[in-house]
Design brief:
The chain has 258 residues and is an alpha/beta fold. It has two domains: 4-198, 2-enoyl-CoA Hydratase, Chain A, domain 1; 202-248, Orthogonal Bundle (Lyase 2-enoyl-coa Hydratase, Chain  A, domain 2), CATH 1.10.12. The protein is built from eleven helices and ten strands. It has a six-stranded mixed beta sheet, with helices on both faces. Strands 4-6-8-9 form a four-stranded mixed beta sheet.
Length: 258
């Protein structure tokens, strides 16, 4: 059975972690399959946005598969740690905008997967947290770096050092998630959000994401230079000309990602 499923519909890729019986935990094989799918998405110009979701109704992902980990050697644990970092960094660096549809529990590495995405939408029932210090380890797949950049150092320290689990509504208050919806509406709401982005130029979406992600940790002058270079990428595109023509003709533009 495939542990990662990939479906593409109307320029949207839906990536499903397909281990509901294990609460969508990541074992090494899952990470290998996820890496393959992410690379497939990266090079597919027809895919303009990506949604990550867990199978079943209980979990987005509870992180590392602890049943597997208890039998691993120290070297194998390091191998898994390297691989999960590699995969989540690849997700973070996808040119397409990404959405984490958090349909249930999101702990440890599952939470870190969500943090590697650009947008997080959570089901009302979702409970999440970076709980690693409770297992005498620390978040090791980007959590200690991405969470404080998202919500600030003080709140990130509180959540990581206490290993506290928090609700979807708390996550909305903290700024971790963009929206909280009913579980039954989660995928449709995520697709609707993706659809809003699909109304816009695909190259512009990618360049806007590039400018934000690469500029936010630079000084302002460097960030402005990054923005200008990203803007210049959009100038020779067919989509930019199409947008101007559509505006003049009072119609909706048809973007081709060219």
């Amino acid at each position: 059975m495939d542990q990662i499923l990939l479906e593409v519909q109307s320029h949207v890729a839906i990536v499903t972690i397909n281990r509901a019986e294990a609460l969508n935990a990541f074992n090494y094989q899952t990470l290998i399959e996820l890496q393959d799918k992410v690379e497939e998405i990266r090079i597919n110009r027809d895919i303009r946005t990506v949604i990550f979701i867990g199978s079943g109704e209980k979990a987005f992902s509870v992180g590392a598969d602890l049943k597997e980990r208890k039998d691993l050697t120290d070297e194998q644990v390091k191998r898994n740690l390297h691989k999960i970092n590699e995969v989540f960094n690849a997700i973070d660096q996808l040119p397409q905008p990404t959405i984490a549809a958090m349909n249930g529990f999101a702990f440890g590495g599952g939470m870190e997967l969500a943090l590697a995405c650009d947008i997080r939408i959570a089901a009302e029932e979702a409970v999440m947290g970076l709980t690693e210090t409770g297992l005498a380890i620390i978040p090791g797949a980007g959590g200690t770096q991405r969470l404080p950049r998202l919500i600030g150092q003080a709140k990130a320290l509180e959540l990581i050092l206490t290993a506290r689990r928090f609700t979807a509504n708390e996550a909305l208050t903290y700024g971790v998630v963009t929206k909280v919806v009913s579980r039954i509406d989660l995928l449709s709401e995520s697709l609707a959000f993706a659809s809003q982005m699909l109304n816009n130029g695909p190259i512009a979406l990618q360049q806007a994401k590039f400018a934000i992600k690469n500029g936010m940790n630079a000084d302002l002058n460097t960030g402005l230079q990054i923005e200008r270079k990203a803007y210049e990428v959009t100038l020779p595109t067919e989509d930019r000309i199409e947008a101007l023509q559509a505006f003049a003709e009072k119609r909706k533009p048809i973007f081709k990602g060219k």
